[in-house]
Each structure stands twice: as C-alpha cells, then as structure tokens.
Here is the input.
Amino acid sequence: MCLAIPGKIMEIIDNDPIMRTGKVSFGGIVKDINLAYVPEAGVDDYVIVHAGFAISQLDEKEANEVFGYLKEIGAIEELLEP
Amino acid sequence: MKYLDEYRDQAACQEYARAITRITTRSWTIMEICGGQTHSIVKYGIDELLPDKIILVHGPGCPVCVTPLELIEKAIEIAERPEVIFCSFGDMLRVPGSTKDLLSVKASGGDVRIVYSPLDALKVARDNPDKEVVFFAVGFETTAPANAMAVFQAKQQDIKNFSILVSHVLVPPAIEAILSAEDNLVQGFLAAGHVCAVMGYTEYEPLAKKYNVPIVVTGFEPLDILQGIYMTVKQLEEGRVAVENQYSRAVKREGNDPAKNLITEIFEVVPRKWRGVGEIPLSGLGLREAYRAFDAELRFGLSGKSVEEPAECISGTILRGLKKPFECPVFGTVCTPEHPLGATMVSSEGACAAYYRYRRIQNQVKS
Ligand code: SF4
Here is the structure.
C-alpha cells in the first residue's frame, strides 16, 4: 500500500494552492493527481505519486546517479585489480 | 516507462551484485525497513544475487501488517453500522480481525468501498450528506500528506459527515525499537525512500550515531536496492557510520516542506501499538485537538477498546528481523494468502505473502 510510482504531468487543471490538481500519466494511464505538495512542478515534469498525491518531484540530474555510481566503482575496482 | 524500466536493467544489476561480492569480507545482516522493498527483493530475487555472507532481513515496513488487531476490530464495528459508508485502501479488506474481516462485512451487506485516495472518500462524503463516511487512515509517513490534506479540506469545506479512523505509524521509532532490543541482529538499514521523500532523513542521523549503524535511504527498483546494499556494505567494511542517500532523484535531506507542514498542522505524535510488536512510544500520529471532530474513534465511542492478539502467528519476530517466514510452522499450510492468520500474509508487501508468492515452489524443491 506504500507503493508510489513515477508519472508525468500532462496538464495543470486547477491552480488553487490547496486544490492544485493535474493530469498525470503513468505509462499512458492518466489520473487526476493533487499537486499541492509539489508547487514548483509543472507540465512535462515527473513526480512520485502515492494515494492520489504527488509527494516529490523527480530530479532529472540525479536520475542517472545509479549508473554514474556503478561506473565509478567499476573503474576504481579495475584500478585496484592487478 | 521512464524512471522505471532503466532501473530494472539486468546487466547493471549483475554488475552491482559483483561489486558487492568484491567488497564483502565477512558476514553482515542488513534490514530493509519497507515492505515495498521486501516485495522487490523477493520478486526480483535480489537476495539470491548477493553473496551468502550478506543476510537480508525484512523489517516492519508494511502498514497493513502492523495495524493492530484492535483497530481492525474497530474498523469492522464501524463498517457494520447501517448509517456508515466505510472507505479503505483495498489491501486492508482482507486483514483478519478476531472473527472476520472487512470483506465479510461487505459480503453481508455493509457499505464498504475501496478507494485509491482519501480525497475519493471525501468526495463520497460530499455526495452522500445523509451518511457517515469513514476513511481507514492507515499508513506510514508516505501516506500522511494525503490523509492530512483530506482532513484539512473537510474542515475548510465544512464537511461534517466525514471522519477518519487513524492508524498512522512512523518509521524512525520502529528502527529504534529494533536496534535497542537485546537480541537485535541488524547491522545496517536501508531506509524507505518514499517515507524520506516526505520527511527527509535528518531524523535518522542521531539514530545512526547512537546505535552505530549505517543507514542508507534507498529506492524501490532492483538497481536502487542493490546500490543501497552496496553503499551499506561499503560503510560496514570501512568501519564508517553515516546516513547516505541512494535515492537522490526523489529524496532531499530536508524532505518535502509543504507536506511536513500540513502533517504537523493536522497530526501530533502519539504512542501506537504495532501488530506483532506491541506498543512503541511516540511511534504514530493522532489527530490534534483542533481536528478531533474528525476522529472516528471518538465519533463512534470506541476509544477505550483493546484486543489481545492470537499466539500462533510469529509475525512479530519476522517483523523484527529475527525469523524468516519459512520458520513459521503454519506457513503455507494453515496460513496462506487465501486464509491468512497474520497480517504479514495478507498484504503483498508482507514478508510472508512475498515468500508464499515467489518462493514456495523453490522451497518445496529444496526440502
Ligand atoms: S505464515 Fe502466517 S501465521 Fe506464520 S508468521 Fe506469517 S502470517 Fe503469521
């Protein structure tokens, strides 16, 4: 039930600070999602959604961190291996 | 799908597993706190990719599993009332109470509805002014922003026939309860990424220091979990203790301020009972004085009630990382997802259910 998934904001349909709502697409399935907690997120941004609410905006720059880190540790290990 | 598929890349997973093997010199026990991670680990066989020396144990991070029996009983009692429409996330419906579950209340004519968001329940209340609409507000910090907003809007819009049955639990006190127990085996933690997306991770810093355990904030996809394990093992091997953030694409150190502010406006920290574990001080959220009018327990006069838990289920030791589901004598025989004895068998995020679904056949072959 704690499942939260990434989705892409397609459209903002209500900009009231509390009711801020957008159409968010999850691989093609579109739902109305409350965006009050991600006031800076706009159309084309990705957000993490849980129970009808966006709880976090995904950071494009940090998104490749997993692969960068892997490359880095791979490279370091290669240096250390004889 | 962007932000999902790339984090399931098999070759990169293998590479991480090899990197973990390379740096592991001795045995380490690491707990993932969140049920979503437990599900991923068992589903993708992440534990089987790891060297034998790395032991993963599954923590109490499934809110469905730790909701105490007495709250299930209260939910059933409220849902049975003729004037009530009872709304809940789907996975609470099959959690066994002492004699029945919410699904059987629905089957015998109770108006029990599955909703996706507490805002859906609020809409049901708006559409049915002659009914009492109750939402079963279960969850960790991840769900608290949603429940806080539902109560906030109910008050703002003066919706009087709406209330919530609160069973909100907090992760850091559970980690502390596990670490402070004398029989604790856990040497490192993967903290739950989405809980931290809301709350940030400053609360974990004193815990890591006090108990001398590395804590790595970790996401939910296979690559996230493998990187989280790598970062934890690296700290353990180097004798370092810190809180690190693997899930930086979604988590900031300070968390989500607007969400935290609304949670604090609506809720206060209270003691909570955890199913299978017992009461943990200051481990949950309850409605603040100013919002008590929306408290279903008070509205239906149920606040004093307490119920003992059945003895045969060992989910308490499983939730604390001391035992695995296979060690339960009734696992997969008397207790199955169709007839769950304990809550860890009900939710797909519960350790017993994950093992039943993905490991039962293998285990039969082995034994
Ligand atoms: S298998 Fe069933 S009875 Fe055993 S610990 Fe898990 S939930 Fe409890």
